[in-house]
Amino acid sequence: MKKRFKAVSFIIVAMMFLSLLVACKDNSSSGGGSGGKSSKVSVGIVLPTKDEPRWVQDEQRFKDALADSEYTTEILFSQGSSAKEKENVETLLNKGIEVLIISPHDGEAAGAAVEAAKKDGVTVIAYDRLITNTDAVDYYVTFDSVAVGAAQAQYLVDQAEGTNVPLYLYAGAASDNNAFLFFEGAWSVLQPKIADGTFKIANSSEAEGLKDKAELSRDEMSKILGQVTTNWDPNEAKNKAQTHLTAAGADLKGNVAILAPNDGTSRAIADVFATDGDITSYVISGQDAEKASIQYIIDGKQSMTVFKDVRTLVKDAMGMAIDILDGKTPETTGTYDNGSIEVKAKQTDVIVVNQENVKKELIDSGYYEASEFTGL
């Protein structure tokens, strides 16, 4: 009886010892340090919203990018809320991520979230949108946002005929650093053509007051954006366009040029201008090559879009994350001043798409299928 009791006791003690070993192993792999490939989730990704097609496409491409890798990822959406964004980062930190890829809803508000990640030893990659006024950002993967704005503006310039062409300005959200970069690029191209009388600003007294100034400060741009921001919201863009056209006199109609910041707002603004009987024609910009806007371009309802091949951007971001997980130093091509530090960055080129090259750039390249459009 005593021998049996001793044997049972030995088994119980052995099981307890094994349990402790397993618990220690679990604890060592759940933190945000250099546990490497043992982490439950290797790469955490936070995207701003599921309400824009662009970010839904990114979600799938991020999943595909790690499909053949030993590393794992989890993707969460912030739905336009900085509080939700911070909560998402905390959720991912609790799952032991080693790399955080984040496209912030609000570049400055995201600082608190990434500072928590940095404190946990997690490498932070800002994706597409820069996180500002914090030193807790390690890398930035982006398209050349200044070049995007310049490309949009150059298209308007190239299509302009005569003088005093009414120019309607619209911009992204003032909470998004990219909106300033887009506008900076656009202004660098438009301002000389405003100053020489090619364009006449139709909907911003702040821009009109600065029309002779080639380079604008951040505060000056903020004042213009305060009048023409769409907040990346098509409904807000539609309402602003209706307000501006209602207030515009006959001299600000006819053949017009419209700087629209992205495809969603471009379609909304174009729909408003198309229904105004005093608008003879319009040339309007866009960006992101959203499927709906490609159909608009084919149909002649949107003039152009700046194609940012998200496949390349995702590949760059995930390649950078894998380099970090493998203990390598990621390749970068420049830096961006985020107001606190110079953030190392990798930039991806952009392509202007219109009716003439839409098939070549978006169908022949495999980005979209021809069957997804009519009248191609």
From TrEMBL:
PROSITE patterns referenced in this protein's UniProt entry, alphabetically: PROKAR_LIPOPROTEIN
Entry annotated with the keyword Signal: yes
Highest taxon in the source lineage: Bacteria
Residue ranges of every copy of the Periplasmic binding protein domain listed in the record: 43-328
Keyword rRNA-binding tagged: no
Signal peptide: 1-25
Main location: other
Annotated localization: Cell envelope
Pfam family, any one: Peripla_BP_4
Alphabetical UniProt keywords: Signal, Sugar transport, Transport
Protein name, per record: Multiple sugar transport system substrate-binding protein
Taxonomic source organism: Anoxybacillus andreesenii
Lineage, highest ranks first: Bacteria, Bacillati, Bacillota, Bacilli, Bacillales
